[in-house]
Amino acid sequence: MTDQNQPPQRQEPPGHTAEMTSAPRDSMTGYRGRELLLRKRALITGGDSGIGRAVAVAFAKEGADVAIAYLSEHDDAKQTAELVRAEGRMCELLPGDLADRAHCAAVVEQAVAALGGLDILVNNVATQEQVDTPEEITDEQWLRTFDVNIHSYFRVTAAALPHLGDGSAIINTGSVNGLRGNRGLIDYSATKGAVHAWTYAMAQALVDRRIRVNCVAPGPVWTPLIPATLPAEKVATFGEQTPYGRVAQPDELAPSYVFFAAEQLSSYYTGEVLAALGGETTPG
To answer: How far is CA 257 from CA 3, 239, 266, in A?
Structure first.
C-alpha cells in the first residue's frame, strides 16, 4: 500500500468524515464476509465513523445486525447505517453522550430491544485533547476523558453483561499511547493504559462464563478524531513516525475485530491486546 500522507487540515470536535480532506477508507469495499457472525447481534460504541464504522460494516458483511452508539455526528451515523443496511442487516442508531452514566445503561437496553438480544460488545468510543504541558490539563478535561474513554467501557459493559452468555465477545479499543504514553496526550494515554489493564482483568473474571474479552490497540489511524483534535501541521505528519511511514486506514483494522468477535477464529483467545502499529515492535 502506497498511501500519501494526508494534507494539513483542522475541524471542530467531534469531527465529521465529510469535512476531511483525503477521505478515510472506512466502508470495507472489497471485503467479502463468510457468515462468521451470522445472526449475531452487536453493539458498537463510537460506531458512526472511523474504526467503528469499518467494524460495523465488516460485522454486517459477516451476517451480524448492529447498533451503533455515538455522540452527535448524525450525518456520519446515517451513512454508516446505509452501508450496514446495504448488506441486508439491521442498524439501530443510538445518539447521546456516553460520558453520562445513565445513557450508558440506556444504549444497552435500546440495543437489546431493537436487535432482540446481544452477543458482541465493541467498546470503541474515545475523546482526546492535546496539550503542550501537563499544567494545561484542567480537572474538567481529565474527568471527561476518563468518563468517555474508560468509564463508559465499564458502564456499558456492566449493563451488557446480563445479556451476554456462552460464546459472547467483548472487544475494547486501546491505543499505542496506552502502551508507551504520549507527552501531548497525557490523560488519553492514561485512559488507554487503563483499557488494556481492564481487558486483562475482565478476561480473567469472565473466563468461567465463556465470555471472551480482548482488545485492539492501534497506532495512528486516519479518523475524524485526528483533524478535530490535533493542530493542522501535526495532522500533515500524523503517522510518519511508523516504520510504514503512514497512518492506518480503518478498513485495515476492522478485520482484527472480526477475528476477536468470531468464535470460529478466536475461541482460544481472551485477555489479548493486539497492537497494530505499522511495523513497530510492541513497546513494553
So the answer is: 23, 21, 10
